[in-house]
Amino acid sequence: MGDYKVMKIDEMEGAYGGSFKRARASLGVSSFGMQVLDMPPNWGDYPDHAHEKDGQEEVYLVLRGSGEMTIEGESVKLDPDTMVRVGPGTKRKITPGPDGMRLLALGGVPGGEFKAHAITELGGPERLEGI
Question: What are phi and psi of 16, to 5 degrees?
Fold first, then answer.
């Protein structure tokens, strides 16, 4: 039998009231980060952040809906036809549009070892401190 797992996104364990799907851990991925974020319309509380401490670069892809990402003060439109890569030391903030947004976030450490954050683990905390 092969090594694979199939799962519906809405069946994955979540944090933040279910809006932060622990996709990586739910599928058994261990080599890179992968989360699905379900953001309500016009939600403005996604944290402005960078990953200079853990060295993680990220790629974002909208699965449904639309929104925008502010990267170092520059606004970039997000939709299902647009992918965005952001380097570890670059600040980013995501804001969903009027229909909300389902966003796939992929992350890894260039040339380094991926280390999962506790919030992404099955059974992990419901929220990160300070966010």
Answer: 50, 50
SS (H, E, C) the chain: CCCCCCCCHHHCCEEHHHCEECHHHHHCCCCCEEEEEEECCCCCCCCCECCCCCCCEEEEEEEEEEEEEEECCEEEEECCCCEEEECCCCCEEEEEEEEEEEEEEEEECCCCCCCCCHHHCCCCCCCCCCC
Around Cβ 72, how many Cβ atoms within 10 Å? 10
Q: Between residues 38 and 42, which one has the greater pLDDT?
A: 38
* Torsion sign (Cα): 44, 59, 65, 22: negative
Residue count of the chain: 131
Its pTM surpasses 0.85:
yes
